[in-house]
Amino acid sequence: MDTRLFIALLNPGIALVLASAFLTLWVHQRHRLYLAVLVLAYSASAVGFLLQYFPLPVGQELTKLLSNLCFMLTGTCLAGAVVARYGRRVPYTALGILGVGGMTAFCWFLFVQPDLTWRIYAINFAIGGISLVVAAELRAVRRNGPTEAILFVLSLLSALNFFVRTIIALKINGPFNAEVGLHDSLYWTTSLLAHALLSLLIALSLFTAAALDVLKALKAESHTDPLSGLLNRRGFEERASAMLKRSHDSGLPSALVIADLDHFKAVNDTFGHAVGDQVIAAFASQLRSEAGKSGVVGRLGGEEFAVLLPASDLAAAQMFAEGVRTSFSQGGSRGLPAKARVTASFGVAAGEGALPALLRQADEALYQAKRNGRDSVRISYRRPQQEPVAPAGIRFA
Q: Where do the GGDEF domain residues begin and end (predicted)?
């Protein structure tokens, strides 16, 4: 193959392969829109490089304009996708100003005051500015993980490439007065190499991030109960054990509440399993709402649930359980007749022990609540010197 043709097709080939790879990812993860934006970015890059070597019938000037529009689209789309991937708000204003400003300057030095050197400065400095915007956005998340740190560094290197390399290469080559010789210059050679290297490194980092997203989603799915939307037993035990350890290391108390819906089999037998599922979902929603963001809530199986309350003592856990018991029994559930009510029983334990020990203590208290009439809250132990006055509906084991 002719060397010039190989060079002409190298970057478009790399860009099209990367675009195809991101397209495959997006087809299987349609909810991740940043993947579709990456497809657009790398496709535009391929078109931009092809137009550098294969002009359109519209003329050289318009071909160069379209080529550099593609490069600018690549820069802005890539920036927006990277920023969006990490949950940051895409800085549309900054990207728009840099993109429009760069293309305006490019058009001025293409049509009004033709100057190839200043066109190169205009397009490179605009994309370099976009790279700095990305680095500024990633600075806040660069310590969150390896891909964040790598992409932050790559954004800075990209900015250096578009600013420093451009200036040095143009100083060495001298100002360009015409397109002749551009593709054989040091500036163009370093542009091709830098683009190929940065494109691959950024793409590999984003592929890694996408793979981590998939693994995280699979882990969340394996730890989530599909009916209630809460953690399943495995997920609850893992999350609760980790939180208990953090609380213990910080010297903070923790409390565990186990809840069980009363006579739930009768609900299924009388009203059907669809209504029973609605009751499960309603009770799960109540627990999640009352526990807040700090609590760990899980469905242990069937109609049994657990809530770990960090930074909570036994009294606080009692109040939590009693509040859920009262509001749920009085609130009714969708699908049930107006006068029908489903109640729940609760067992509460607190201490600095491991999760299995807390689960046993809370389960014993729950058994006492079931045996003594249900629709009540029982605690596994109390300190006599700190005996509280029991509110209505609360009995002590």
A: 252-382
Using DSSP bridges, classify how beta strands 377-379 and 296-301 pair: parallel, antiparallel or unpaired: unpaired
Burial of residue 2 (number of CB atoms within 10 Å: 0-12, 13-18, 19+): exposed
Low-confidence ranges of the chain (pLDDT < 70): 1-2, 332, 335, 381-397
Neighbours of 172 (CB within 10 A): 11
DSSP letters, 44-106, are HHHHHHHHHHS--TT-HHHHHHHHHHHHHHHHHHHHHHHHHHTTPPP-HHHHHHHHHHHHHHH
Q: What is the pLDDT of residues 144-201, one digit of tens each?
A: 989 999 999 999 999 999 999 999 999 998 788 778 788 888 999 999 999 999 999 9
> Helix count (H) and strand count (E) of the chain?
13, 6
Give the separation between CA 268 and CA 226, rounded to whole angstroms: 18
Rounded CA separation 286/278 (Å)? 12
Write the burial class of residue 59 (CB in 10 Å: 0-12 exposed, 13-18 middle, 19+ buried): exposed
pTM of the model: 0.70
The DSSP-derived string for 355-382 is HHHHHHHHHHHHHHHHHTTSSSEEES--
User: Measured at the alpha carbon of residue 112, what is the angle toward residues 106 and 118, in degrees to the nearest 5?
Assistant: 40
| pLDDT, tens digit, 9 for 90 and up, residues 364-387 | 999 999 998 899 999 996 433 334
Select from 356, 366, 275 the least CA-distant residue to 321: 366
Pairing state between β 304-310 and 296-301 = antiparallel
CB environment 323-352: b (16+ within 10 A), e (fewer): ebbbebeeebbebbeeeeebebbbbbbbbe
Residue 283 in tokens: 């009770």
Q: Which residues are catalytic?
A: 303
The torsion angles phi and psi of 392, rounded to 5 degrees, stand at -55, 135
User: Residue ranges per domain, the chain?
Assistant: 3-222, 233-379
Do residues 241 and 346 make contact, with C-beta atoms less than 8 angstroms apart? no
DSSP single-letter state for residue 140: T
CA 128 to each of CA 52, 132, 139, 166, 167: distance values in angstroms, whole numbers, following the listed order: 20, 6, 16, 10, 12
| Record: fold of 233-379 | Alpha-Beta Plaits (3.30.70)
